[in-house]
Amino acid sequence: MTRDAVHPFDQAITLAGDPAGARDGDLGKGYANMVGPFGGTIAAALLQAVMEHPQRLGNPIASTVNFAGPIADAPFTVRAEPVRTNRSTQHWNLLLEQGGQIAVTGSVVCATRHDSWSDNERSMPQVAAPETLPMFANPASPVWTRRYDLRFASGQWGLDPVPPSDSQTHVWVRDAEPRPLDFLSLMAMSDVFFPRVFLRKQTFCPAGTITLSTYFHATPDSLAKAGTDYLLGIAQARRFHQGYFDQGAELWSRDGELLVTSSQMVYFKV
């Protein structure tokens, strides 16, 4: 298969080098954000280093990515180190280095799941079907948004002259160019939500994620079932205070299975 035939997402997160050692990557400009690459692809590239490592056991259940400095649209090096393997969990440390400096630190926990008691304390909200909603299109938005088919059921910033009283968004999302869902694309999609301050203030302002934690509830079977269909995303902040706010998010399959939850702390300036 030629590089041109590879999905843009897979091109962006491709890592070269020994899977058990330092890996070289370059996200390019296909998922460019306001400054540097889209954070979801950075997190996915880090997760890729774990997924391709020969010592990995199980599948990811948690990931934390700390953005220690700005990431440029330039080559970088990723290191994934397994620090402890237990009977059912495996713990990894991650580093991304660029330009001679550590730009990202992080961790991943993989696990082997087993049958046990299960329950859902949340239910997927009922919103308009994606086919009934217009596809988001804004030439002024960052390049990465064009890689996704986004359809807002509520909470699209920039449309309301009166700022809303809360920051909740409901948005359907899938890859604009179809690609079967896996842990890597799920990692990236969990970060597709615009900073909540954009919605509350109804305007663009400087903002950037400081730390992002993602929790995977999906299994390989549920990913395969979701396929290339839309996922319903929900995001909302809880407090804006002295230049920072938190942002929680969820992604649901169309049939009502909660696939991933996340929480991040975001810097902003207004």
Automatic annotation (TrEMBL):
Q: Which residues form the Acyl-CoA thioesterase-like C-terminal domain?
A: 133-267
InterPro entries, sorted: ACOT8-like_C, Acyl-CoA_hotdog, HotDog_dom_sf, TesB_ACOT8-like_N
Top-rank taxon: Bacteria
Q: Where is the Acyl-CoA thioesterase-like N-terminal HotDog domain?
A: 33-110
**Pfam families this protein is in?**
4HBT_3 (PF13622), 4HBT_3C (PF20789)
Query: Can you name this protein?
Result: Acyl-CoA thioesterase
Q: Which organism is it from?
A: Isoalcanivorax beigongshangi
Q: What is the lineage of its organism?
A: Bacteria, Pseudomonadati, Pseudomonadota, Gammaproteobacteria, Oceanospirillales
